[in-house]
Amino acid sequence: MAELDLIPADYAQRQILLRRVKRFVAAVVSLACLLVLARGMLYLLTSAETGEVARLQGQERLWAQSEAKVEEYRKQKLATQRQLIALDELRGRDRLRLFLKAVDAAHVENVWFDEIRYYRRDNLPTGNLDSLPGGARAGIIVVPEKNVPAPGTAPKAPDIEQRVGIVGHAINHATLAQFMRRLESQRGIADVSLVDTSPRSYPNALVIDLKLSLVVDEKARGRP
After folding, report:
1. Does residue 2 belong to any structural domain of this protein?
2. pTM (2 decimals)?
3. Number of folded domains that form the chain
């Protein structure tokens, strides 16, 4: 016996169509929800990126301001250092004048000089003075300071001591000792020491070659 379909054909088609419409509407709603969710996430990410950009821009402005201040401080520092160096040069000239006055006051007969070397902010090296840099012999030679700093860097702090090397001759050791005592008693002269001495024969005389070192210091009052 054959089965009978009691559901009208048009009703069945409407049900099928209705189910398809419901599925389509559900799909559209799901897609709309996904779009809304994606938009919300994009907004959050954009807001976070905008905040990060603003923070970085603020840091960049602060860095630029700090760099400008550092550059200003650097210029002020260099200007101050130039002023200090200029003042130190002036003080060095005063020490040179003080030394020349002391040598003039301490001079004795039968002592004469071949060379005077004036060292600005450098300690007098030990050893043979003939090997020192400085230029021609005879006269006063100001030896330039070594290790000049590069532009934009801090110069070396000036040394308080100003050392002098003397190369010359004396008629004998007694005259040399007298000159050293007189020189050490002058104001501004300290640490007079005999670096080297040796006899030298000439056709009609025997003299003493001498090499002295001393410190020029305004605070030194000289030995009595």
Report:
1. no
2. 0.46
3. 1
